[in-house]
Amino acid sequence: MSSTFQRQTSLLTPEIDEGLYSRQIYVMGKEAMNRLAHAHVLISGMRGLGVEIAKNIILGGARTVIIHDCDKVQYEDLSSQYYFTESHIGQNRAKVAVEKLSELNSYVHVTHSSDVINETFLTTNKINVYVLTDAKLDHQVLVGNYCHEHGIKLIIANTKGLFGQIFCDFGEKFEVLDTNGETPITQVVTEISRDDIGVVFMSTDTRHGFEDGSYVTFQGVQGMTEVNDHEFKISAPSPYTITIGDTSKFGTYEGGGTVTEVKKSQEVTFKSFSDALIEPDLLLCDFSKMSMPSNLHLAFQALSRFEKQYNILPKPWDEPDAEKFYEIVEKLNMENRDKPLTDDLNKHWIKLFSKICTGDLCPMQAVIGGIAAQEVMKAVTGKFMPVRQFLYFDAIECLPENVFQPSDTIPKPRFSTRKTRYCSQEIVFGADFQEKICKSKYFVVGAGAIGCEMLKNFAMMGIGCDKEGSIYVTDMDSIEKSNLNRQFLFRSWNIGQMKSKVAAETVKIMNPNMNIHAFIEGVLPETEHIYDDAFFERLTGVVNALDNIKAREYIDRRCVYYRKSLVDSGTLGTKASVQVVVPFLTESYSSTRDPPDPSIPMCLLHNFPNLIEHTIQWARDNFAGLFTIPAQQAEEYQRNSRKFAQRTSTNLSEYDRNEIIENVKRSLGQERPKNFLDCIKWSRNLFEQQFHNTIAQLLYNFPRDHKTTTGERFWSGNKRCPHVLNFDINDKTHLDFIVAASNLLAHIYFIEQIRDRQYIADQASKISVAKFQPKSGVEIFENDEQLKSDMEKKRRKNSIVDDQSEEEQINKLLIRFPKHDEIRNIKIRAHEFEKDDDSNFHIDYIAATANLRAENYEIQSADRSKIKRIAGNIIPAIATTTAMVTGLVCLEVYKLIQGHKNVESYKNAFVNLALPFFGFSEPVPPTKQKYLDCEYTLWDRFDVQGDMTLEEIIEYFKKEYKLVVTMLAAGLIVLYAPHFMRQSNRSQDMKRKISEIYETLTNTKIPSHVRSLVLDFTCEDLEGNDIEDVPYIRYTFR
What we know:
Layout: H1 2-10, H2 18-28, H3 30-36, E1 40-44, H4 48-60, E2 64-68, H5 93-103, E3 109-113, H6 119-124, E4 129-133, H7 137-150, E5 153-160, E6 163-169, E7 174-176, E8 186-192, E9 199-202, E10 215-219, E11 231-233, E12 235-238, E13 241-243, E14 258-262, E15 266-268, H8 273-278, E16 282-283, H9 292-310, H10 319-334, H11 347-356, H12 362-381, E17 390-394, H13 423-429, H14 431-438, E18 441-445, H15 449-461, E19 470-474, H16 499-510, E20 516-519, H17 533-537, E21 541-544, H18 549-562, E22 565-572, E23 575-581, H19 602-606, H20 612-627, H21 629-639, H22 641-649, H23 654-668, H24 676-701, H25 732-748, H26 757-765, H27 784-796, H28 806-814, H29 820-823, H30 842-856, H31 864-871, H32 879-898, E24 908-912, E25 917-921, E26 929-931, E27 934-936, E28 942-945, H33 950-961, E29 964-970, E30 973-976, H34 983-990, H35 994-1002, E31 1012-1020, E32 1026-1027, E33 1033-1036
Parallel strand pairs: 1-2, 1-4, 2-3, 4-5, 16-17, 18-19, 18-21, 19-20, 21-22, 28-33
Antiparallel strand pairs: 5-6, 6-17, 7-15, 8-9, 8-14, 9-13, 10-11, 10-14, 12-13, 22-23, 23-24, 24-25, 26-27, 29-30, 29-31, 31-32, 31-33
């Protein structure tokens, strides 16, 4: 099968726009992206599910996508097909959808067809993958048999109310090139034994992660060079060692080297659709419903039989039809089998399927559409493990909780008397719930990839689409080219515009009834005058669409304070997670935290790197230290020298102060460049300093044969012995460095940049640099403990005498800076690191620097793309995962708006589409604490209404709660602490209002938008015993 992939990619490869696809390439890799760019995909069925799959595949970058549908737009389609409006009713679905889908990606040829699909059509259009949605069972069997016989990959996808189905057939022999999507493991080798069973030792700082039976290869091993560039099948007897077979005849290990996992392909066999119907392979999604897949396998087949038998589909919430439907399922369970497909046929589930199967829900289609689109990509790339072969998904917990209570009959929902755009959703939930959802008020924090998908789902669901409802969305960012691959509400002509504004305008077109309000201010402590008490208190709930932990934690604190539900989600490549936070029922987002990413020790970065990640981080820090921080400090000094000196004189050690002064003096001094040739000279000397002299000094202090105090080789284990680089203008990476550094420096000083590499090479080759002379007494630290100890000593030393006045300190410091009159007109600007601008030399410099330093230490170099991802801290992302995870979020929103009271109804999720794996769990209840006889959680507090005096609030807690207040504070401001207050002050304050005391102590007026303060207090019981923990006080004084 690999030869098939090779043949595909040997054709004329369409140009891959890495600026557009960069985040997706980090998920799939360039080879897989090239294969996808050759794919010809047919998607039949253009209702909500079909358009969702098409959208994801077009964003992904297939070569051709043909959308097909023979039917016309109906009212029922408007609940989930976001490119249809009422004006399209009666027109062909594919013809209507093609216009908007074509806008998504100019690199993809999108066409439509309403003809009958036949062999000629499939052959002429070179169809690789056939996606069939909303088709009847007989047609599925017909298409399935044809595709299996003719080598066309087939994906069948359907949603029926709160139930979803995916089937995959990629042929009898399909090669999976990457089974898990994980980056190959690389570890540093510290020793390899010469033995019948050679043992490879690695750092004991972390577990190596290799598994028994996997394969590895070595690079850069010294002495035992026989292992380099050869594959070995390994065993993993311990977390820090592996064995690689007989090494007894190899040379002696002398040092260095890395060991890297080699990924092996795996061949997978698929049955045809008709065979798989009888003997299905069922992927389990939810371990709490083990028999659900087999029940749904029968239910989806029974639907076709019911329609044949009664010439109609089951009526919504019709009990007699549900009984008939169950009888058909019972018969199917035994048909064509020696034994039942399942011994656990669940009548309640089957009848629910019958009652809601004619409904269409956008969130369900987002889930199934995201998964199905990823399967299309797997089919054409061989990247990641396909679904084998049926996947069934349900979200029956979204139904009213009384549906699951013991009862002979389930109450039938009320339906609208006329057709509306929500009629397919009403089939599942009824008109009363639809009115409630339209009146809800939701805050979407973030309008990036997740935010765009969320707003689309909300528009189809009708959230905030009544005059009493609202959607609020905020995002501080503007649209960039790299966003367009996933953030499907934006187009190329929107680049530079604010995300929230464009997103709001676009979804308003999808549903004109949506009352949406766009903000561009972040949700921060500094913007609490915008997102104030009145704002949060009107909300139904909040959904996060954020990409950083700090912001998520702040939103979480606000939701806990205002007792609002929160659904948080995130993606990392093919992985996604959802956490639902329900007031009083669950813990909050911040209740548990992932362990922080391990930081790289400073000494490892500065002197002893052994992985490319170390040199990339060093290069990123080097960029900031040369091109950002000094120029920023110089700019600030120019703007207001006195204010800058004042800030520098306080809260800094003399060591840090000296560094700032030197940065300003260098940036604004006479040695600054005056023309581009000066920039080249500076760059050439910088090369010499960083890649020759610094390394030469290190080797002077620690020669290659240096021994430790215990007699062991210094350059061993994790320490790679470096070598100096001699500048070679004919070396591409050397010239890359000079070109990038020269242009970066020129930009800082408004010197016209020169990009002519030959000119720069000619000039650089003429520059002579001083010969290196080693220095005695240069201290180079071997570990972080020594480094930290030295830094602490330097920072403890402070030359400014404490008894000097502030004015004297500033004047004394100003003498050490350049004279302001002499430098204030020098034009200077700092670089703000921007990873996605390929013309600004930022990534060029970091890539060249990282690879040159890697060459110093004989570390395998990295390509520009990898360096950009690591240096820019880019999160790999793909539209399929994003669409899927927002569907899961919106399923939780259904429950929240209904007001589900049982924690068992809600689902946290972790999904990895690469495996594929689906994990669902109940949210964790909040931790309970206790004071006196009262239990409380993070959701509880004391609510105090009205502005009280200190005396009144103390008496209030004593009387109402039997608590004696011993200290009262608002943040860091202590309002009451009797043991530390003079008697006269205490007597006066006891009669004063708390808001007045707060304003006096902070010397500020409480802003008009602030209606309450958060007060913390310590207390005793009435017997004088300390009480350790109590809830906080929400003190509403206005």
